[in-house]
Amino acid sequence: MNFTLQQLKVFMLVVQNQSITKASEELHMTQPAVSIQIKNLQAQFDIALIEIVGRKLYITDFGRELYQIADRILKEVASINYQTQSFKGILSGRLKLSVVSTGKYVMPYYLKDFLKANPSIDLLMDVTNKTKVIKSLEHNEVDFSLVSVLPETLNIEQEILVANKLFLTCAADTEIKITQQSSKAVFDSIPLIYREEGSGTRVTMQRYFEKANIVPHVKLELTSSEAVKQAVMADLGFSIQSILSIKNELKQKDIKIIRVKGLPLIENWRLIWLKQKKMSEVAKAFLIFIQKNKEAIYQKNFSWIEQYDK
After folding, report:
1. Residues 6+ apart with CB under 8 A from 37
2. How far is it, in rounded angstroms, from Cα 209 to Cα 213?
3. For position 61, what pLDDT does the model report?
4. Which backbone phi and psi does 62 adopt, to 5 degrees?
5. b vs e for 42-81, b when ≥16 Cβ sit within 10 Å of the residue's Cβ?
6. Which of 95-109, 165-179, 230-244 is predicted least confidently?
7. Mean pLDDT over residues 2-31, rounded?
8. What helix, strand, coil percent values describe the chain, rounded to 5?
9. Is the pLDDT assigned to residue 159 strictly greater than 60?
10. Which residues on adjacent β-strands are paired with residue 256?
């Protein structure tokens, strides 16, 4: 057999996406180039790896077995490269993070200078909802997770990064008159846009409503912070949103904040990890970097939030 590492890499992405088109986009290759790589790999075996039925691509049982083997091979090759760098005194390896969806407005700023100073480190960052983030941490699949609501069932350590302030928002041209009204009176009269079950933002909102004895009028339920933001701008309703997710929309006057008693709701963005976690050298270095630089990162990238505290 004479298959190449590149063929295995391409094959794995086709399996993961179950699509040659999506794999080609991820690889920044043309579809014909991806198809040729798959064809050349298939030529090494007399058992089919994939099948095309209609216009849909299916992975055969043998293809799934090869996928598992290819995954192990590529990880071992990466390990060789990391060890080579380590012997040269260069910090190298993988940093694996899981981040709740709104955390995408936070985490890049804490990664930027660390990755720039350590170019031999590969970053794997999964941006998803809170339920999946906690699951990946629980199964020890990641080094760190970024959340604003702490999991109740895991024994963890944490490093607080920045405040997560959630304000009531609406489209900039929406007319609403509020003169020091109680939060209950406000929420009795407006249609509210909710995040999906399992979202940290939703958990924070629900805790607030329960404590204030408020039954909100939920008009929409959406599955991402970006979808909520777009719905608010389209004037489909009101929502409680993290200010970090609407920085540009506030600046461009597409969204406005409504001042209500009891708001903003304040949580903290926290980098968390399992208490008994045996950290890699890369993970240790990243944590030390965060602890040393988090105040400077805040001042450079997040101090603008303070203007909305007034």
Report:
1. 6, 7, 10, 11
2. 6
3. 92
4. -65, -40
5. beeeeeebbeeeeeebebeeebeebbeebeeeeeeeeeee
6. 165-179
7. 88
8. 50, 25, 30
9. yes
10. 170
Q: What gap in Å lies between CA 131 and CA 134, rounded to an integer?
A: 5
Distance CA 98, CA 142 (A): 7
Which tokens is 71 given? Answer: 């995954």
Provide the token pair at 186. 């406000």
Of the given ranges (71-75, 77-81, 286-290), which has the lowest mean pLDDT? 77-81
The per-residue pLDDT for range 135-153, each reduced to its tens digit, is 999 999 999 999 998 888 8
Residue boundaries of the structural domains of the chain: 5-87, 93-162+268-309, 164-267
CATH of 164-267, picked from 3.40.50.10990, 3.40.50.2300, 3.40.50.300, 3.40.190.10, is 3.40.190.10
In the numeric block, the tokens 């949103």 are attached to 241
CA distance linking residue 203 with residue 135, whole number of Å: 17
**Of 44-48, 178-182, 207-211, the least confident:** 178-182
CA 236 to chain centre: 25
**The token pair that represents 15 in the structure block:** 């399996």
Q: At 302, which amino acid appears?
A: F
Cα distances from 134 to residues 9, 162, 182, 269, 287, in angstroms, run 28, 20, 35, 14, 19
CATH class name, domain 5-87: mainly alpha
Please write the tens of the pLDDT for every residue from 240-262.
Answer: 999 999 999 999 999 999 888 88
Note the pLDDT of residue 86: 65
Pick the CATH number of 93-162+268-309 from 1.20.1250.20, 3.40.50.2300, 3.20.20.70, 3.40.190.10: 3.40.190.10
